[in-house]
Amino acid sequence: MFKSLMAGIVLGAVAAVTAVYFVPVVDQHRETSIIAVTKNGGNTELFHINVPMDRILIGASGQSNPLPPGLEWPEDLQFANIRAELFKIRNVRDVVVGIASRMAASSDKVGDSIEWVLHLPARGSAFVMMRPEIIGGVHRIGHLRAGTREFDGLRGRVTERWVPDTSGSEDAPEGRFELLTEFVGIAEDIQ
Predict the structure, then answer these.
(1) Quick one: which of 96, 103, 127, 140 could link to 146 by a disulfide (CB 3.0–4.6 Å)?
(2) What CATH number is given to the structural domain containing 94?
(3) Does 18 map to a domain?
């Protein structure tokens, strides 16, 4: 009886290892990146977010229609001037390639701030701090502050632009955020 139990455990372990080898648990799909190379050796990539279709979450003080429905934003005074949003992010082929979060805050002590975190599965994440002022009434510019995986060791900027929809179509979005990334690797001193 004991020998049968031990044989069953060993055969079960071999079967489990074989199954994991031939049937991977995670097969993370990576959409082909659509990157343009710039003269300085860096690269640019354009993403967009259709609003409201790509909005996953919106949290802000005093909102009448929270997303998801029933979301209760803290009514504490320290959260009064903060707006948090989570979006699906799309490439130029209109394929969802990741998620992005946008945090906007306003404070009398430190001023306004806007931060984006772009997360592209199988590629990494990029943390961007935007300048709050709108340049030329059209866009904001921010700088890459930190990155993981593919974005680690890069520097550069991200341009945020709101493009309102003018098609007049009934099922068209209100507009879209366009995010243009311009990143370049940091040259390291060779010793």
Answers:
(1) 127
(2) 2.40.480
(3) no
